[in-house]
Structure formats: C-alpha cells, structure tokens
C-alpha cells in the first residue's frame, strides 16, 4: 500500500488516519482523496481494528478544504468528476462499518469541515475553526456540505454558515451541535484515543449494527427506521458476543468480546 498524502497507523484496536499535506494545510487534492480511498479499503479488511480516528498533520489545520489550486481551472465535467470522487470517498467513510472519530486539530474548512461531517463523532481542539467558505470562492460545497451539515445542525444554521462563509471557533461549533466535545489542543489525541478505546471495549458487531441502523434510519420515516433497528437487534442474537455480553453480566464477571 503506497501512500503519499495520508498516514495510516494502528495502535491496538484503533487505527489513526492522518491527512498529511501540512505545507498545503492538508488540502484535499485528487491524490489525497485516492490515498484515503485506499486506506478505507485497508480498514474495511482489517477485522482487528474496531475504531478509527481521522486527524490532520501539523499544528494549524485538520484540512483547509479541497485543493483550490487543483480546482481553479477545472471544466464543468472535471469539476463534477472531482466532486464525485470526494463524495464517493466520504460516503465510503460514512458507511465504513466501524466508528470513525474526527480529531479536529485546526482549520476544518470546506472539504475539511465536510470530511469531519462524514465521521461519526467530532472532537475539536480549542484551536479548531469550522466553516464552509465555498460561496466566497464562487462555488457550492462539493463534498457533502449542503447535505450533511444541514442534517447535523439543521437547515437554519447550515444555510447561515454556507451563505455567509462565516468561520466559527470550536466553542461556537459546540453550541450549534457541530462537534461533540472541545478539549485543550494538547489533550486532543488523548481524548480521541480514550473515546476510541472505550468504543473498542464494546461488542464491535453491536457497534457496527448501531451505526448502520442510525445511518439508514435517519434517512427514512420512523416506521421503516424502527424496522431497521429491529433487524439490527435480531442480528446481534446470532453473535457469540451477545451470548458473552449477557452471560458475563449474569455471572457477574468481566466480558471478553471476540468480534464474532
Ligand atoms: N487549497 C490549496 N492550498 C491551500 C488551501 C486550499 N484549500 N488552504 C491553504 N492552502 C495553502 C496556501 O495556498 C498556502 O500555500 P503556499 O505556502 O504555497 O502559499 C499554505 O496552504 C498555507 O496557507 P496560508 O498561507 O493561506 O495560511 P494562513 O494561516 O494565512 O491562512 C487559511 C489559513 C485561513 C486556512 C487559508 O489558508 C485559507 O483560507 N485557505 C482556504 C480555505 C478554503 O477556502 N477552503 C475551502 C476550499 S473549497 C472546497 O473545499 C470545496 C469543496 O467543498 C469540495
């Protein structure tokens, strides 16, 4: 697996994915998106990884957006292809059957904010800044911002952010529900790893099925959504981990999940 702009590390059951183009504030060009696609292939295959953290390299940025230098002279067809590539990769991340935490260490603008929105949970450093500056560049958000931001924070706040290009600090992002938690910069990775480890201690299949049920259910009417939930719940009862979790509770002993 040859990667130039993304680093993949594994620490026990947790994978850390670092977008690594610090000189361009980790801006997402096609090459970086393709690296991320390859990393997702690897994460999908690895049954020993139970949780994933996505972060940016360097002090300043999580990801400062899609690469403006690459986009500047695109034709209509090329721009659509670029948006489709970003959307394909981010959708794969959103649908990855493992929980993904964005550890937002700095600027999360445009495609960077959208990358964080494709993750399940966002933890922000006090230094993080969020925004969708696209309309100021003469374009719309292109990697899911018009869709996921509105679903997460509601259409009013999403429209305000997208129409005004306002950049909000971490505390404001927390207030509007864009992030789950804000921590001191030096505690960011510690917090993200602690959350990932806490998640990894639970039954991975149950966590995965919860993610699938939430992601599917949020898109449909409540009657269909609760059917997805019942399906997920039932499927858990075909796993060894359900037997282990409940038996350990009844026997008042520590549980040991096997991802089976
Ligand atoms: N694309 C390409 N290069 C970028 C970039 C981006 N999105 N963001 C920063 N860079 C580059 C800069 O060009 C600069 O490169 P050089 O050193 O070669 O000049 C380097 O990163 C450092 O950036 P700055 O000197 O600008 O750093 P700063 O501290 O003065 O400003 C910033 C930081 C406010 C984040 C500023 O860099 C900025 O505004 N970046 C662009 C943010 C943006 O508009 N993002 C949205 C892009 S559009 C998009 O993402 C569309 C989509 O949805 C698909």
UniProtKB/TrEMBL annotation:
Its EC number is 4.2.1.150. Gene3D superfamilies: 2-enoyl-CoA Hydratase, Chain A, domain 1 (3.90.226.10), Lyase 2-enoyl-coa Hydratase, Chain A, domain 2 (1.10.12.10). Pathway: Lipid metabolism; butanoate metabolism. Homotetramer. Keywords: Lyase. GO terms for biological process: fatty acid beta-oxidation. Belongs to the enoyl-CoA hydratase/isomerase family. It is an enzyme of class 4 (lyase). SUPFAM superfamilies: ClpP/crotonase. This is short-chain-enoyl-CoA hydratase. PANTHER family: ENOYL-COA HYDRATASE, MITOCHONDRIAL (PTHR11941:SF54), ENOYL-COA HYDRATASE-RELATED (PTHR11941). It holds the Pfam family ECH_1. The keyword Amino-acid biosynthesis does not apply. One of its GO terms (molecular function) is 3-hydroxyacyl-CoA dehydratase activity. It catalyses: a short-chain (3S)-3-hydroxyacyl-CoA = a short-chain (2E)-enoyl-CoA + H2O.
């Amino acid at each position: 697996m040859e990667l130039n702009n993304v680093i993949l590390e594994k620490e026990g059951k947790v994978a850390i994915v670092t977008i690594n183009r610090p000189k361009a504030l980790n801006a997402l060009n096609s090459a970086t998106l393709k690296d991320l696609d390859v990393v997702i292939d690897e994460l999908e295959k690895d049954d020993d990884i139970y949780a994933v953290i996505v972060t940016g390299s360097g002090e300043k940025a999580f990801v400062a957006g899609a690469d403006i230098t690459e986009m500047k002279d695109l034709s209509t067809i090329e721009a659509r292809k670029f948006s489709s590539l970003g959307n394909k990769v981010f959708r794969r991340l959103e649908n990855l059957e493992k929980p993904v935490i964005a550890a937002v260490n700095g600027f999360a603008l445009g495609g960077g904010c959208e990358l964080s929105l494709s993750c399940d949970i966002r933890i922000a450093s006090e230094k993080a800044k969020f925004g969708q500056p696209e309309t100021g560049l003469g374009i719309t958000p292109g990697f899911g911002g018009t869709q996921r931001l509105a679903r997460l924070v509601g259409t009013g706040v999403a429209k305000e952010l997208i129409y005004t290009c306002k950049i909000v600090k971490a505390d404001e992002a927390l207030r509007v529900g864009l992030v789950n938690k804000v921590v001191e910069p030096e505690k960011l990775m510690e917090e993200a790893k602690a959350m990932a480890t806490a998640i990894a201690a639970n039954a991975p299949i149950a966590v995965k099925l919860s993610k699938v049920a939430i992601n599917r259910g949020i898109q449909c009417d409540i009657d269909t959504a609760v059917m997805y939930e019942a399906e997920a719940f039932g499927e858990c009862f075909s796993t060894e981990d359900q037997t282990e979790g409940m038996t350990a509770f009844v026997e008042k002993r520590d549980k040991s999940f096997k991802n089976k």
